[in-house]
Amino acid sequence: xxxxxxxxxxxxxxxxxxxxxxxxxxxxxxxxxxxAMAKLGYRRNLTARALAxxxxxxxxxxxxxxxxxxPASTLFSLEQxxxxxxxxxxxxxxxxxxxxxxxxxVDRLVAQSVCGVVVLxxxxxxxxxxxxxxxxxxxxxxEGGAAPGVPSVVVDQVDGALQAxxxxxxxxxxxxxxxxxxxxxxxxxxxxxxxQLGMTQAGLRVREPLLGDWSARSxxxxxxxxxxxxxxxxxxxxxxDHMALGLIRxxxxxxxxxxxxxxxxxxxDIAEAAYLRPPLTTVHQDFAEVGRRCVDVLLERIEAxxxxxxxxxxxxxxxxxxxxxxxxxxxxx
Length: 333
Known about the structure:
Layout: H1 2-8, H2 12-19, H3 27-40, H4 46-53, E1 58-63, H5 69-84, E2 88-93, H6 99-111, E3 116-120, H7 124-129, E4 139-142, E5 152-155, H8 157-170, E6 176-180, H9 186-201, E7 210-211, H10 216-229, E8 235-238, H11 241-253, E9 263-265, E10 282-284, H12 287-303, E11 314-316, E12 319-321
Parallel strand pairs: 1-2, 1-3, 3-4, 4-5, 5-11, 6-7, 6-8, 8-9
Antiparallel strand pairs: 10-12
Helix pairs in contact: 1-3, 5-12, 8-9, 10-11
Domain HTH lacI-type: 1-53
Keywords: DNA-binding, Transcription, Transcription regulation
Pfam families: LacI (PF00356), Peripla_BP_3 (PF13377)
């Protein structure tokens, strides 16, 4: 850095400001410094910088379950957003939702001098163990909920489910059932709430939801139960696309025409949704925007003098994508 400063005819501090994109550097000075760096083949030594500051340009991520579409997509988007912002990402997966496992994960990340932590917290138990976060470690929760004092970034699950339910109502469906996700997941509760709200607003009967666990198999089982228990149902809102896939197969094997006899709406807009038979109407979650907003919030917390957070969650809207799995109710129904 001293060599760069000498060649550019500036101070060591000016070179540092250019490296850190400081706004108060003249453009001609910035250009001169960058030219000197290029001539000398200068590359910033992040390890030395981290040792000097006792902090790295690295974000830690603690994840509890990345095998499902939502957490996996969130993790990918977080990494892309962090790299765009100039940060590396270290991921630690936690085998269970016990406080000691979470504390061990935090210790591993702190030992790597991360400047902040993102916690994928879709389950209620994950929120509970977040209480163990060190008070001086900037943190953000994403996907589900957050412990007191920790900001969060979420997709508006309630509104997404409400959009799905209203779509079925607007098509003339009056007998609509819901296949819910895992009971320990905050998002499953929110999607259930949105469906119940849509049914209540339309003045329709709210049936007991069918239980699922996010898997296609559980959707298939729900489809079999649906035809046996409520053959009069013409609309189904399923809490995720994989369960919708299983439900559609079960109904098809029972001789049910989709969407002629039963319309199906999913949630997530997985990559395969547009290629199912029929293409699936579903709620799109903008995981790329979730990743960007999450990194933005974390960087704000890193710069904040006060670690305790009292603001509202950052909410990213969902968007209904209408495809061929939904249609108006047949007149004879």
